[in-house]
Design a protein that fits this description.
Elements (H helix, E strand, L loop, with lengths): L17 H51 L1 H4 L12 E2 L21 H22 L4 E6 L22 E6 L2 E2 L5 E2 L9 E4 L7
Antiparallel strand pairs: 1-2, 2-3, 3-6, 4-5
Helix pairs in contact: 1-3
Length: about 200
């Protein structure tokens, strides 16, 4: 006659304790936070790269405009050369002549100056639209970088025959602090925008 076997106790049963579950949750949370931080940093870097590409494209575009109007662009007097720009904040002044309404394509000094003023206004309007809190300085500068540190500088020595575009915009620095373009201590982009020769 068979006798019923006695049930075994829980010695062979396995499972997770509450401590193990909590440790797993903590480890997963740390991993997800690290992944989110990396994604945020990648998005910020991507945004700054896009701004840099826009700044370079705008500077190249202005250089082309200057080469097309080089008689004005080669003047070292800011009163006669609207391409000499120093703007950090505030609204833009409207150009004296609206080249969409009046002709600015003639060869007189007055029409060339009006054309330059219109081009600069249109260019600055797009710069302010595409770059947050943009600061721009365009000047003749034979030494745009500091001789000792190599850092770009806003100051210009107003010498030489090469014009330089210096541009900055609002960004988050490596310490995570928001730095407005109008308060940037040094340009983020420095590009020669020479107008060519006087001939």
């Amino acid at each position: 006659m068979l006798t019923p076997s006695t049930p075994t106790t829980g010695s062979n049963q396995g499972g997770f304790s509450l401590v193990e579950v909590l440790v797993t949750i903590v480890v997963l949370s740390i991993g997800m936070l690290g992944s989110a931080g990396m994604q945020t940093a990648a998005l910020q870097a991507n945004t700054q790269t896009r701004y840099q590409v826009v700044a370079v494209a705008l500077a190249s575009e202005l250089a082309e405009a200057m080469r097309g109007n080089h008689r004005v662009a080669l003047s070292t007097d800011p009163a006669d050369n609207p391409y000499l720009i120093n703007h950090s904040s505030g609204a833009l002044a409207a150009p004296p002549v609206d080249c969409l309404v009046e002709s600015c394509s003639g060869n007189t000094d007055e029409e060339r100056l009006s054309n330059a003023q219109w081009q600069v206004h249109e260019w600055m309007s797009r710069l302010q639209t595409e770059l947050p809190s943009a600061r721009v300085r365009i000047c003749f500068d034979s030494a745009p970088f500091h001789a000792t540190t190599g850092a770009a500088e806003w100051d210009c020595d107003d010498t030489g025959d090469v014009m330089v575009a210096k541009i900055a915009w609002t960004r988050i620095n490596t310490r995570g602090t928001l730095v407005f373009g109008s308060a940037a201590t040094s340009p983020l982009v420095v590009i020669p925008v020479t107008a060519g020769s006087a001939s």
